[in-house]
Amino acid sequence: MKNCIALVLMIATCITYAQKKTNGTIYVEHPAITTVEDMTQASVSGNMDKVANYLADDFKYYSGTTTNKC
Fold this sequence. Notes:
Layout: H1 2-17, H2 31-45, H3 48-54
């Protein structure tokens, strides 16, 4: 029983100290993060031409807040 408890404590310690970065997030340096941030900034600033560069040619947008089906 003592061996089992010692093993569980050792595994918990290894899991706790295994993370190298203090950020706490999984994807700290993912390349898609900058792409999404750029697209969001373009959308907020109203630059729809730049937003269109990030979207596919057959992209369709549906708004759930209106009843217009067009």
